[in-house]
Amino acid sequence: MSGNRTAALAYAQNHQERFLEELKALIKIPSVSTQPQFAAQMNAAAAWVAEQLRALGMSQVAICPTERHPVVCGEYRCPDSHAPTLLVYGHYDVQPPDPLELWQSPPFEPTVNGDYLYGRGASDMKGQLLAGLKAIESILKTDRLNVNLRFLVEGEEEIGSPSLQKFISENRERLQADVALNLDSGILAPHVPAITISLRGLAYFELRVYGAASDLHSGTFGGVVHNPAQVLCELIAAMHDAQGRVTLPGFYNRVRPLSEAERAEIARLPLDEAYFLQVTGAPALFGEEGYTPAERVGARPTLEVNGLYSGYIGEGSKTVLPAYAMAKISCRLVPDQDPADVYLQLLDYLQTHAPRTVRWELIQHAGSPPAMIEPDRPEVIALSQAMEQVWGKKPAFKREGGSIPVVAQLQQLLGMPTILSGFGLPDDNLHAPNERLHLPTWRRGIETLIHFFYNLAA
Amino acid sequence: MSGNRTAALAYAQNHQERFLEELKALIKIPSVSTQPQFAAQMNAAAAWVAEQLRALGMSQVAICPTERHPVVCGEYRCPDSHAPTLLVYGHYDVQPPDPLELWQSPPFEPTVNGDYLYGRGASDMKGQLLAGLKAIESILKTDRLNVNLRFLVEGEEEIGSPSLQKFISENRERLQADVALNLDSGILAPHVPAITISLRGLAYFELRVYGAASDLHSGTFGGVVHNPAQVLCELIAAMHDAQGRVTLPGFYNRVRPLSEAERAEIARLPLDEAYFLQVTGAPALFGEEGYTPAERVGARPTLEVNGLYSGYIGEGSKTVLPAYAMAKISCRLVPDQDPADVYLQLLDYLQTHAPRTVRWELIQHAGSPPAMIEPDRPEVIALSQAMEQVWGKKPAFKREGGSIPVVAQLQQLLGMPTILSGFGLPDDNLHAPNERLHLPTWRRGIETLIHFFYNLAA
Which of A29, A97, B126, B151 sits CB 3.0–4.6 Å from B121 for a disulfide? Predict the structure, then answer.
């Protein structure tokens, strides 16, 4: 470890009380993005972030208005023209604190209790954002930072980032970087560091099946026409084979096979059958044969029914033979599947399998492609080594089952991969009462990020 | 034809204007059973029917209160101790007239236009009830009637006969008869007389499938647990085979096979593919292989999905992996199937086919057994001959796909079969604006019933 790195780590160590006070100050601003009455506080939080960036010596700091909440930008250009460029992503908004009565301390009065700081946004993600800024401060106050930085700190993450696509499209120059660092995630346990290397994509559809011109009496007409609810069930039933595989033609063509090394990596995660049984409460697990539950969630695509409707669904009975049946169906996609391909595959499936006794239509809702960062990229190696330097062990490489809009948008619009990490923990009570931040892990996070910047610049 | 029969027919002929005036008087009473504001008119209609029975010389005439609308009873005992006994069923209530603005003449101001009498209840079934009473009058005024009669005229048929089961149970003695005559049906066309010899029964279920303990995020958990909506679809899909037959074990065991004679009888009905395509508006017909559409509706059992629900069914998309899925499923049954058997068959099917990855429950809603009258019973032959005497051709023997509560209840509670007939026509606008009665057919109906009573007594 170089002498400078040691100075930066010492600075972080020496200023940890102030860092915590600054985090408390940010948590005190109730920046609830979804409720209009917090508009002034949203602006105050954006101004607070912008002021932090200015205090760090960032240039081009700007609070950029959007249709709802502003985006805070800024940049740092280092003298070395060969230095890598990192886009630091964050969000300053938080979830609503309701139900208030379940909080043991007020959500916007940050309170330390033992190893934890309690407060809305402590973990998601004001704490994570500050970890990044305080790592940068620790280096800049003691040394030079040999990495170019750009900042994208939004205020709409908790409401689905509705303004972000437009903002990214209109600010391509200002955001250009080699890779994005998104700390809006976490590690698996205080002793299990992790980096998320892939997110699944989404293709979402609505399948509508029409039979008779209007609902019929099931006595007078039952046996004469094809019941669209039955047809819908038959179509859905045949979308999986007996091995739990999706039968849409070509569905797996572009799915990257898991290497033995990747399977070994996934097997290290504490996501075994007992874990999934416990968190889901299902009577038994189920999924594609030949893959573990963690592999199925992280690295295999799915097709799920999200909704079903037909006929009479109230109390008791009604002897209707429905004219119409509908299913919401979505696929979670893995690299290198494309939502547009999946639409055509489902269309192909329906054209082949739907009987002529009904009419049908397939509606496409918004989706997103899967996202993945190659684990052998230098930025991922730099973070992995940093974690090893702090924790004394290599991080787990996680594959997340869900999608994150900003990750998909940076990939799609700027071709920019994202390193997704952070120092939250599974029991941080995200989006729930008594959200908290594990302070020892947070401090390790700041140290990790100091190492990361040094490793990246090396 | 005997001389007396001729006198009765002449009486009917001579009094047809008065008969029509009496029918108009009854239609003028707006006896809408479903709307509480017509309570007084319901009592007035019951009193009108009771007065008719008294005027005919019936004994034991009584207006019997029920929880909602009264039942009118009465009887006629003929001197011949070997005479058959007939229970004449009717209902004096009508459907609401809404939408009023679509009526070309006021619904409760009966209006003759050409061959038709317009008014609510003209065909369903005040006209049919009066046809029966006027045939009896025509005989009693000119001759002796050699048939014992009992009357059961309810006021709740249009609301599903909720008080009838209790009433029948508590009045077994008063209602005892060899067979019931229910004129609340119709013929197929002015030149095609018909008798309905069977009704399908109903077994109605609700199948609930449970997966995870609560709705899950389809990204985080998709691929790990069995989606109950998918399981439900698979269970429903496998309830039919490729030939459109129901796969519940033993489902067809008690189904009476159709004889060649019965098939020939059904083939006479004007219920071909073109007819069903036209009335349903379906793109194509569908059903059990090896049977015509009319056979499938009248003489074959079915299993239909009446309702489907799971997860998110609103606008747009929600990436939920539902914890619960539900289907309403019902079977139409034919002689000699039993709803209780079908419940056990469905239970057996589910125990065999439902995977262990979900929990499920099967709820049984009210059903009814199928009803059939043997076409070679003397009462059916008497009516069939009467139709041939009036129309010059044998009636069609129809099998109806639906169920009628009173027919099932008389069968179940008193073991009494019902001759279901009447002189309505398919285009009488039942339950719709401009309900009407085809007067030439109605007059033929009165003549037919006069013949029927004579044939029955012979």
Answer: B126
Return the beta strands (E) in A258-336 as ranges: 302-311, 320-321, 324-333
Assess whether A399 and A387 both reside in one domain: yes
- Which one, of A181, A149, A147, A179, lies nearest residue A60 by Cα? A149
Amino acid A2: pLDDT: 54
Domain that holds residue B98: 3-199+370-457
Please give the torsion angle defined by the CA atoms of residues A11, A13, A17 and A20, in that order, rounded to the nearest 10 degrees.
Answer: 90
Residues B177-212 pLDDT 10s: 999 999 999 998 999 999 999 999 999 999 999 999
β-pair partners for A329: A205, A305
CB contact under 8 A, B224 and A287: yes
DSSP for B205-235 reads EEEEEE-SSS-EEHHHHTTTB--HHHHHHHH
- Note whether A233 contacts B229, CB cutoff 8 Å: no
Integer Cα distance of A333 and A420 in angstroms: 18
| Backbone angles phi and psi of A240, in degrees to 5 | -125, 150
CATH number of the domain to which A359 belongs: 3.30.70.360
Measured between CA atoms, the residue of chain A closest to residue B312 is: A307
State CA A177 to chain mean position distance: 20
Q: What is the secondary structure of A56-102 as a DSSP string?
A: TT-EEEEEE--SSSPEEEEEE--S-TT--EEEEEEE--B----SGGG
Q: Do B230 and A304 touch (CB under 8 A)?
A: yes
Q: Closest partner residue to A223 among B206, B302, B308, by Cβ?
A: B302
Q: Please report, as a single letter, which amino acid is at residue A454.
A: Y
The gap between the terminal CA atoms of chain B, to the nearest Å, is 11
Q: Coil, strand, or helix at residue B184?
A: coil
Question: Is the domain of B340 the same as that of B376?
Answer: no
Interface contact A359-B283, CB threshold 8 A: yes
Same domain? For A374 and A450 the reply is yes
Which position has the higher pLDDT, A161 or A170?
A: A170
Q: Say what the ipTM of the complex is.
A: 0.86
Please tell me the distance from the alpha carbon of residue B197 to that of residue A229, in angstroms, as a whole number. Answer: 31
- Number of domains chain B is built from: 2
Residue in A233, A281, A302 closest to B223 by CB:
A302
Same domain, B442 and B306: no
Name the stretches of chain B with pLDDT < 50.
Answer: 1
DSSP A270-287: S--HHHHHHHH--SSB--
User: Does A47 share its domain with A181?
Assistant: yes
Same domain, B31 and B91: yes
Say what the pLDDT of residue A3 is: 57
Q: Which residues pair with B309 in a beta bridge?
A: A309, B326
Among partner residues B204, B280, B358, which is closest to A221 by beta-carbon distance? B280
Query: How high is the pLDDT of residue B49?
Result: 98
Which domain-ending residue is among A368, A395, A410? A368
**Last residue of a domain, which of A312, A346, A368?**
A368
Contact A240 B233 (CB under 8 A): no
